[in-house]
Amino acid sequence: MPRGERTRQDYRKWALRFAEAFEDDPVEMFEEPESRGEVNEWRKRWAHSPRQYDYAGTVVARILNWLWEEKRAIRQHHCAGFTKIYKVDRSDIVWTKTQRSTLCKKAPKWVCRILTTACETGLRPGDLIRLTWSHIEDTPKGRRIRVRTNKRGRIATIPVTPEMASVLDSTPRDRDLILVSAGGRPLTEHRASEGVRQWRDKAGLTPAALGFDLRLQDARGTAATRLLNAGLTLAQIASYMGWSVKHAAAVIEHYARVSPDETDAVLVKLAEATQGA
Question: N or C: which end of the chain has fewer CB within 10 A?
Fold first, then answer.
């Protein structure tokens, strides 16, 4: 199963749908080439939703791969490599300083802390909600966050920027979690993302007003710029974000274009970083 709880829930849902659809068929049927066509016919129930259509194929292939690799009941299968039809590129969507300020003027402190931490670290929601004091380390010149990311299991080492330092300094030392709900309770990925979405809309940053759907996950592009300003190289940023160096440079350049108050400084640093990449 995947690492993230939200993803595990989705996998369970699709595994159960798959089991129900083929419960009267012997598992050996998937050794036959025709089984691929039958699975595709089943997937067509969600042809109206490219994302669900792709998800159905992904989970089926993963289950059958497991059966084959563990030598459980099948010797081969023909449901690998389904063509994906859902495509999304949100690399050009970032939180500008103005948008962050607009939300934080309206939102409660706990929501603002989530967004600030996301924009200053680039961590995904699943990593944000489990950030604790044990992840904060002192360095000769300040502090850093050292955490094994939930999605890829990589170690991310992130310098603590001045704004991130403010979040940490306002966190009670007797509370383990850095980010909590309004009632001081642990957050879920959904609650963290939904809290930002709800207050984003209340602050007037709706998809209708902006022309795009600004989400908590879009803070990763903003963080790339923050980290460049904090002294990380493009290669370091790309490695920890899971991007190519070229993609990291493109995201940062876009941020500079949509944030006029930072354009000159960011582009100068980006030019210097690109020359050394």
Answer: N
User: pTM score, two decimals?
Assistant: 0.69
Q: Kindly indicate the confidence band of residue 113, based on its pLDDT and cuts at 50, 70 and 90.
A: very high
Contact 27, 67 (CB under 8 A): yes
Query: How far does Cα 259 stand from its chain's mean position?
Result: 22
Cβ count near 111 (within 10 Å): 26
End-to-end CA distance of the chain: 36
Indicate if the pLDDT at residue 250 is higher than 60: yes
Q: What pLDDT score was predicted for residue 260?
A: 58
Tokens linked to 198:
């709800």
Dist CA 38 CA 207 (whole Å): 39
Burial class (CB in 10 A: 0-12, 13-18, 19+), 109: exposed
> Residue 40 class from Cβ within 10 Å (0-12 exposed, 13-18 middle, 19+ buried)?
middle
What is the DSSP annotation of 226-259? HHHHTT--HHHHHHHHT--HHHHHHHHHHHHHH-
- Which comes out higher in pLDDT, residue 180 or 255? 180
